[in-house]
Amino acid sequence: MPRLLLFAPCEKVITDQQGNSVSLITLLQEIRYSVFQNVQIPPNAALPMKWDVLSLWEKETGDEGIEFEQKIRLVDRNERVLIEYGAQFRFEKRVHRLTLRILGFPMTEPGLLNLVLLLTRPGLDWTEVTRYPLELVRETTAQ
Q: Where are the domains positioned within the chain?
């Protein structure tokens, strides 16, 4: 199984023209939003923001020619899945980079959320590779 080198949510991932180097702009640790007092947030509401998630994998012995699949899930403190995205990949070089662009951020209950990275390959169960904590902070303002 490949070895995870980097897993990071950020505002933007920029790849150079040759595709060899990446820059991460504003690593996300805390998401803040404001609402007026006594305003009810509708179910499934989302903050209007674009954000990226980068995962960088290193090929291990035996990974050649195998199609891997990763899933990225954002879960709340009760492990309820708020968003989920998947991607398949094969190694063409020693290191494989996946960048996911996400539109919107769920306006769920404030508190600690986790961005969970899972990996599998044909015939195996999903394995949780890592978690990245994100704090969702709701600020209330007067009308």
A: 3-141
Q: How far is CA 125 from CA 56, 66, 83, in A?
A: 21, 15, 20
Do 130 and 24 form a contact (C-beta atoms < 8 A)?
A: no
The answer to whether 72 and 89 are in contact (CB under 8 A) is: no
Tokens of residue 56, six digits: 């960088």
Look up the pTM and report it: 0.92
- Sequence-distant (6+) residues with CB within 8 A of 28 are 9, 10, 11, 51, 134
3-141 CATH choice from 3.40.50.620, 3.30.70.270, 2.60.200.40, 2.60.40.3880: 2.60.40.3880
Instruction: Write the pLDDT tens digit of every residue in 131-141.
Output: 999 999 999 88
Q: What is the CA radius of gyration of the chain?
A: 17
Distance, in Å, from the CA atom of 103 to the CA atom of 47, rounded to the nearest integer, reads: 9
Give the model confidence (pLDDT) of 17-59 as tens digits.
887 899 999 999 999 999 888 888 888 899 999 999 999 999 9
Q: Whose structure tokens read 């290193």?
A: 58
Using the structure block, give the residue that is written with the tokens 């209007």: 48
